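Quick one: structure for this chain?
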Amino acid sequence: MENLRAISLALRMDIINTIYRAKAGHIGGDLSVTDILVTLYYKHLNISPQTVQDPKRDRFVLSKGHCVEALYAVLAGRGFLPREDLGKVYQFGSPYIGHPSNKIPGIEMNSGSLGHGLSVCVGMALAGKLDKADYRVYTVMGDGELAEGSVWEGVMAASHYKLDNLCAVVDRNGLQISGTTETVMSQGDLASRWSSFGWNVIHVNGHDIDSLDAAFVESKAHKGTPSVIIADTVKGYGVSFMENNLKWHHRAPTEAEYLAAMNELEQRRLAVS
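Got it. Here's what it folds into:
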């Protein structure tokens, strides 16, 4: 687990470096979701660069697709794409665009039109059940995304079809582009809300890799209903001046901010290495 913490910090540095060079990106949400993606890809997701076309592979959809820089960093870390390709993000003619594209190895579908990821994953999970396949399906959503009505249609369908091969993760950082989630569209007690739709609810600290690991284990062991992991996170986590700061929803750092962020993360990485 200490190794995963060090990897998570190193990948945060890759994310910031990518966004600084590209002069664009959703840095706040990237940093809030990194630990979730690291735990999933390094410990639980049954897929590799060699098995991206294997019908037995697990499926993953980043529904909050605007945070693709974090996904690119994790995919590079796992060998799905060359690490030097992170320098091509947002470049003219590059396949590394600002939302996930299935032209990239390891990306299942084009996403980022918020509210679609869960419903597509319901279809993938239902297909797995009909085919009597063993693969699992995962999606990560933003909490602001939960204002989309299509999310709750997917929630109902997943429960109705008893899709226990489906696990949704909510990146609950409490902020979205125009303010706090509770100001824009109040969500109240999310755990009770999902539970009322018949889901197995697991509530964790989204930056505690041990807790995330245990949550994914529990979701796999649970039978009869789909599982949702509500992961409490901090937007901009890991860089003190970005944390819980709405202006970092979509913003590239200046040179001074870039150097300060990289230095802070390097010091944290060295402390856990």
